[in-house]
Design goal:
One of its GO terms (cellular component) is cytoplasm. Belongs to the peptidase M17 family. This is Leucyl aminopeptidase. The chain has helices spanning about 25-30, 30-40, 70-75, 80-85, 100-110, 140-155, 165-180, 190, 195-200, 240-245, 255-265, 315-325, 340-345, 360-370, 405-415, 450-460, and strands spanning about 15-20, 50-55, 60-70, 90-95, 130, 180-185, 210-215, 220-225, 230-235, 275-285, 295, 305, 330-335, 350-355, 375-380, 395, 425, 430, 440-445. By secondary structure, the protein is α/β, with parallel strands linked by helices. A hairpin with a 5-residue loop joins strand 11 and strand 12 (about 305). About 35% of the residues lie in helices and about 20% in strands. The protein is elongated. Helix 4 runs parallel beside helix 5, helix 5 (about 100-110) packs across helix 6 and helix 9 (about 195-200) packs antiparallel against helix 12. The chain has two domains: about 15-135, Leucine Aminopeptidase, subunit E, domain 1, CATH 3.40.220; about 140-460, Aminopeptidase (3-Layer(aba) Sandwich). The longest helix is centred in the first third of the chain and has 19 residues, at about 140-155. The strands form four sheets. Strands 6, 7, 8, 9, 10, 13, 14, 15 and 17 form a nine-stranded mixed β-sheet that branches. It has a five-stranded mixed β-sheet with strand order 2-3-1-4-5, sandwiched between helices.
């Protein structure tokens, strides 16, 4: 289901936000029956509290939502979405003294709260509707919500139904929706097109590896999005333990996220030329699997010593990045569920990103703060370059020692981007381990909303 706002002429019940600091003054301004009802139900404006105020006919006249204090709104993103979940049905309108950013966050959070992944249950979940608040761009917010829901659906779908074939089909559906062009190179044709590392990683699977190349737009700056599309990662011959394999359906979270971002860009008609590159593979085990100790040659001629077949994401991305860099865009973004080291450093909620461009980093950070899509800049620390330079090849795909794993992976990818003026790599998690307002447990987009919000600023730099 694509979340949308209620029709503008729909009758709506107002939802009033009440802060803890302003509660006494607000209560004093109400008539006696309201004051008595509020006191009887223990409502004091605590963050997330919900109270329905009855009309004389016992229908709902208004809804109160506790807005807490400033620290509550910092700690809890999409606080307004708690009302959407609690109310479950009906049509509502925002009623409160919120800033423009808070209003936009509230409206988007309400839309996102309607998301549920019910492909295998089939149960339709009844959701409350919201009228678009005055001053927000409703179509833009609906496009953002639809892009995020696309990302969540792709990640949540198990690998049995989301392999390279199905990921390609999702790309073709998106291209058809927006009139984009798409080209797919599959199987041994990857060798003919000089994409050897994508082929090497995916050749052991019964589902053929491929590179998906989608383009859209004819004018404006050039932007290329590259997303890791490892539809399932067994770890290859360096087989993962079962406890580490359980969430590997999400290893195509980078691809899912760039597709969600691509939808946001195309649905809102941005004046730019977009390219999306997705190396789609399954890292499996068979007699022709690539091995520890092998040396592979990448598209750009660099040789890579394989010291762990479970560090496969950077290999498929390397070929895609090298291809993109041959016709350098104005901006290239790489998104991948790449390293556990990033999660150890920042946890599941913060998306680390790498760039040498200070202006780009500042624009992304500001956007992430504004739209509540938190990011954290990490360093391309060049003194660590020797950690990815083994004895017998140009690069090592899995440096020993265990230190700085996210940084060394980013440095590895950076070797394949030499001509593009602005480049950022995101090492995302793509999974929400604990349900939160507007963010149920499961697949989730990270960084896409921040990138989308930052694009006008970035493209004007």
């Amino acid at each position: 289901m694509t979340p949308t706002f209620a029709a503008p002429d729909t009758r709506a019940i107002p939802v009033r936000t009440v802060t803890t600091q302003g509660f006494d003054d607000w209560l004093a301004s109400q008539d006696v029956p309201v004051r008595d009802w509020v006191r009887a139900n223990g409502f004091i404006g605590t963050a997330g509290q919900i109270l329905r105020l009855p009309a004389p006919d016992m229908s709902i006249a208004r809804v109160l939502l506790g807005w807490g204090g400033p620290k509550d709104r910092v700690r809890t993103r999409f606080l307004f979405a708690k009302a959407a979940v609690a109310l479950k049905s009906g049509t509502y309108a925002l009623d409160g003294d919120l800033t423009a950013n808070q209003t936009e966050e509230a409206a988007l959070g309400w839309l996102l709260s309607a998301y549920s992944f019910n492909r295998y249950k089939g149960d339709e979940v009844e959701v409350a509707r919201l009228k678009a608040p005055k001053g927000v761009d409703a179509l833009r917010l609906e496009a953002i919500a639809a892009g995020e829901c696309l990302t969540r659906d792709l990640i949540n779908t198990p690998a049995s139904d989301m392999g390279p074939d199905e990921l390609e089909a999702a790309c073709r559906d998106l291209a058809q929706t927006h009139g984009a062009d798409i080209k797919v190179t599959t199987g041994d044709a990857l060798l003919d097109d000089n994409l050897p590392m994508i082929h090497a990683v995916g050749r052991a699977s019964t589902r053929a590896p491929r590179l998906i190349d989608m383009t859209w737009g004819h004018d404006g700056p050039r932007i290329t999005l590259v997303g890791k599309g490892v539809c399932f990662d067994t770890g290859g011959l360096n087989l993962k333990p079962g406890t580490s394999m359980g969430l590997m359906k999400k290893d195509m979270g980078g691809a899912a996220t760039v597709l969600g971002l691509a939808h946001m860009i195309m649905a809102t008609g941005q004046n730019l030329r977009l390219r999306v590159l997705i190396p789609a593979v399954e890292n499996a085990v068979a007699g022709n699997a690539f091995r520890p100790g092998d040396v592979l040659t990448a598209r750009n001629g660099l040789t890579v010593e394989i010291n762990n077949t479970d560090a496969e994401g950077r290999l498929v991305l390397a070929d895609a990045l090298a291809l993109a860099d041959e016709t350098p865009p104005d901006l290239m973004i790489c998104m991948a569920t790449l390293t556990g080291a990033a999660r150890v450093a920042l946890g599941p909620d913060l998306a680390p990103f790498y760039t040498d461009d200070d202006a780009l980093a500042m624009a992304l950070n500001h956007a992430g703060h504004r739209v509540r899509d938190p990011l954290w800049r990490m360093p391309f620390h060049r003194p660590y370059d020797d950690m990815i330079e083994p004895a017998i090849a140009d690069l090592d795909n899995a440096p020993s020692g265990g230190f700085a794993g996210s940084i060394t992976a980013a440095l590895f990818l950076d070797r394949f981007v030499r001509n593009t003026p602005r480049f950022a790599h995101f090492d995302i998690y793509g999974w929400n381990p604990v349900a939160a307002p507007a963010r149920p447990k499961g697949g989730v987009g990270m960084g896409a909303r921040a990138i989308f919000d930052a694009l006008p600023k970035v493209l004007s730099l």
